Amino acid sequence: MAITTRGFGGRRAPAEKPLPPGQFLTEDFPVLSAGPTPNVDEAHWQFSVHTESGEVRRWDWAALMAMPVEDVTTDIHCVTRWSRFDTQWRGVSVDAFFEDVESEAEFVMVHSYGGYTTNLPLEDLLDGKAWITFEHGGEPLAPLHGGPVRLIVPHLYFWKSAKWVRGFVMQEHEEPGFWEQNGYHLYGDPWLEQRYA
Amino acid sequence: MTWLVAEVTEIVEVTASARAITLRVPGFRGALAGQHVDLRLTADDGYQAVRSYSLADTALDDVVELAVDRVDDGEVSPYLVDVLEVGDQMEVRGPLGGFFVWRPENVEPVQLIAGGSGIVPLAAMVRARRRAASTAPFRLTYSVRSVADAFFAEELSASAGVDTTWVYTREPPPGHARPAGRLAPADLASTFGPSQDPAVFVCGPTGFVEAAAALLLDAGHDAARIRTERFGGA
Ligand SMILES: Cc1cc2nc3c(=O)[nH]c(=O)nc-3n(C[C@H](O)[C@H](O)[C@H](O)COP(=O)(O)OP(=O)(O)OC[C@H]3O[C@@H](n4cnc5c(N)ncnc54)[C@H](O)[C@@H]3O)c2cc1C
């Protein structure tokens, strides 16, 4: 049944390109986090990839800075319904971290400082679809928005773009991460409006 | 989860800029204290806007109670606060959010910290506690600009078993000992400390939540015990 809300006109932003269903455009950068913002300084930051065979590859800040840097301009879509067009990030493609990693596992559990986790199929992180970033809008990434280092996976709802990222654990089976255990969709495609489980 | 048609059954002024809005939502099947819903408004030409609002009470299964504060340059909240009337319709989806919740079977101490409209889901917890006759010790620290900006002030102050401390950022009432100012380390003196290992719920505008959570961490609270809900804004 189609209902209307008497007296509501709305204030539509002139969208120059389509938005995923149920999203609205904002110029702000709202914050969705389940707990306090962790304080992680660059000197102590580490990133690691753990494979199913128990192997671990590690990078520190200096190693990250030595990797090939890319500038990425992309739209982002948060499950709490805001979207932003043309956000700018600087970071390293996730592909670069997997160059020397031997794994047959098809799923990844992303871990963050502060205990946050989120699950993704590996293929959603590879082939230029995801980055480990450290700058946003030309500035070092603020702690509130995931600094010093945040994963971005722009084609999925932004809760998959884990703030304060510190590692990937390869998994043979898909298991739900933090929000995925708390009511959000296992995969989270904004164009299919996969918000809730 | 589908969109349900909701009809406004009651509107009560809460402050000069906020209203409590009661919706009857056939098909809504109850919620836990702390959860929120998505509201969808549809204009005559089909344009739609959706925003999240916390449940202020979870007493009745097919009734949704909200309290909305006007964000002056906003798209949806000025409509809800200034234009909406009893009998108007909109759509509701929920309940949403499985983490920022208090369950009546929890007996541990609970520390609530609210800024402005961030009291809404915490008021739902206070009400759920009363309804369940829970004896879990609750403390609430509620930061508002002035007495006139407080939501549910009388009810909160009168809640047995809930120890409420007021923080006035701009204009304390006459005789209030604490000077005007934002939440500061000294305000934690009236809260459960880390040694009591409380479950902590912090809610309000994003800047308030950031500041309060940082104070709690500095005071030694375990980050894993602090749950936050950020309403937006700076
Ligand atoms: C889980 C959740 C629960 C919420 N519960 C409640 C609730 O119980 N009561 C309530 O009143 N609001 C609540 N909110 C906020 C609400 O969803 C809207 O963001 C708010 O009503 C503003 O919407 P708008 O359309 O009027 O403003 P918009 O048009 O979306 O925004 C206009 C401007 O206001 C800023 N802004 C947005 N939200 C806020 C804010 N909260 N404070 C200050 N500035 C802001 C924006 O950054 C923007 O610059 C909740 C938000 C979330 C995520």
TrEMBL record, chain B:
The FAD-binding FR-type domain covers 1-102
Instruction: Tell me if Coiled coil is a UniProt keyword of this record.
Output: no
As cofactor, the record names: FAD
Q: Where is the signal peptide?
A: none
* Gene3D superfamilies xref list: Nucleotide-binding domain of ferredoxin-NADP reductase (FNR) module (3.40.50.80), Translation factors (2.40.30.10)
Q: Which UniProt keywords apply?
A: 2Fe-2S, Iron, Iron-sulfur, Metal-binding
* SUPFAM superfamilies with a match to the protein in the record: Ferredoxin reductase-like, C-terminal NADP-linked domain (SSF52343), Riboflavin synthase domain-like (SSF63380)
- Which GO terms fall under molecular function for this chain's record? 2 iron, 2 sulfur cluster binding; oxidoreductase activity
Q: Which InterPro entries match?
A: Cbr1-like_FAD-bd_dom, FAD-bd_FR_type, FNR_nucleotide-bd, MRET, OxRdtase_FAD/NAD-bd, Riboflavin_synthase-like_b-brl
One Pfam family from the UniProt entry?
NAD_binding_1
Name of the featured protein: Ferredoxin-NADP reductase
Query: What is the source species?
Result: Paraoerskovia marina
